[in-house]
């Protein structure tokens, strides 16, 4: 089990939602936390709230811009030291049929949800290599294992995160570098990103507290994949996809209501 006390953790998308809750829990574990977000005003408010719970610093950055990420890495290293735990949490969503998705929204989802994780890992892995240890958490989604309508770009980005995480984990293991990689695939989390969307039959909105607690536990255990809820997401979904014909899986998705859950999606207005 990894010890988190005294470690430097960096959380992207830390101004609100899952990122803020993850930062709060890492502070409770005794970590020193770098809070990163593009929304400077919201980030400052969150930083002030969390300051009484431990050492945290706010860094404004557009993580989809690799030059800004390089500058971020330098700034964090100078003020807090090398990052031991990197949580690539930031993400956005737009739900709409493909032909109704704006080109800019497609590009933005791929840049922020997927490409930014490459820039963050390239920027902060060298410090972990120097230290000879570390941990990376890449937030994906249940939508990175099972795609549904009206989320073409979002699912593409999250499928990419799952593949990136799996390849990176094996790459580091091949190099015998003791840096863990955890890919997190939660069902819909109640943070506002999917405001207005319906829930799939037999499921419920997840709380940020529950997901964050499972992520912290996964860091401690060096767990490669976290599905929330665990069995349906991490075990049942991949098994059914492997065993059943595509037409049967499509029918199951339709019967469970997955084809229409995002018909009323509104999302977080600030995103």
Number of helices: 8
Strand order of the largest sheet: 3-2-1-4-5-6-7
Number of domains: 1
Radius of gyration: 18 Å
Largest sheet: 7 strands, parallel
CATH fold-level label: Rossmann fold
Kindly report the average pLDDT value: 95
The stretches of 5 or more residues where confidence is low (pLDDT under 50) are none
The CATH C-level name is Alpha Beta
**Distance from first to last alpha carbon:** 37 Å
The class by helix and strand makeup works out as: alpha/beta
CATH superfamily: NAD(P)-binding Rossmann-like Domain
Going by CATH, the architecture would be 3-Layer(aba) Sandwich
Order of helices and strands: EHEHEHEHEHEHEHH
Globally, the shape reads globular
Q: How large is the share of residues in beta strands?
A: 5-15%
Question: Percent helix among the residues?
Answer: 40-55%
């Amino acid at each position: 089990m990894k010890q988190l006390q005294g470690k430097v953790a960096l959380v992207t998308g830390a101004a609100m939602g899952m990122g803020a809750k993850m930062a709060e829990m890492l502070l409770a574990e005794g970590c020193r936390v770098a809070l990163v977000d593009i929304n400077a005003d919201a980030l400052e408010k969150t930083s002030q709230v969390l300051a009484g719970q431990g050492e945290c610093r706010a860094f404004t950055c557009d993580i989809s811009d690799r030059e800004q990420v390089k500058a971020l890495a330098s700034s964090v290293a100078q003020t807090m030291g090398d990052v031991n735990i990197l949580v690539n949490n930031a993400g956005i969503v737009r739900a709409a049929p493909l032909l109704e998705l704006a080109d800019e929204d497609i590009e933005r989802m791929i840049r922020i949800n997927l490409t930014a994780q490459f820039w963050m890992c390239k920027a902060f892995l060298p410090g972990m290599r120097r230290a000879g240890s570390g941990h990376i958490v890449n937030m994906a989604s249940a939508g990175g294992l099972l795609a549904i309508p009206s989320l073409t770009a979002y699912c593409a980005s999250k499928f990419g995160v799952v593949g990136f995480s799996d390849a990176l984990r094996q790459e580091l293991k091949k190099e015998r570098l003791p840096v863990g990689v955890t890919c997190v695939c939660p069902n819909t989390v109640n943070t506002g990103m999917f405001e207005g969307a319906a829930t799939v039959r037999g499921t419920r909105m997840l709380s940020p507290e529950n997901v964050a607690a499972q992520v912290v536990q996964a860091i401690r255990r060096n767990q490669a994949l976290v599905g929330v809820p665990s069995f349906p997401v991490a075990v049942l979904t991949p098994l059914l996809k492997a065993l059943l014909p595509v037409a049967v899986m499509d029918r199951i998705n339709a019967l469970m209501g997955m084809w229409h859950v995002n018909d009323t999606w509104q999302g977080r207005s600030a995103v």
